[in-house]
Amino acid sequence: MNDDPQGMASGDLNGDGFLDLVVTATNPDRMEVYQTTCEVSNTDILQ
Fold it and tell me: In 3D, which of 1, 23, 25 has the Cα closest to residue 11?
């Protein structure tokens, strides 16, 4: 992603049951999609 992200959204975009992340930039023709490849629990994040 470039140095100026403008927005983001999450959702299960590919139907695999995991949340994915979409980040938009100042360029209106560009967005990046980050797909989750494994399950992450709250306890994993807190440690």
Answer: 23
- The Cα-based distances of 7 to 19, 38, 41, 43 in angstroms read 16, 24, 24, 27
Q: Is residue 29 part of a domain?
A: yes
Contact 7, 28 (CB under 8 A): no
Domain count, the chain: 1
- 47 pLDDT above the threshold of 70: no
Nearest CA-CA partner of 9 in 38, 30, 32 = 32
pTM above 0.90, yes or no: no
Beta pairing partners, 21? 10, 34
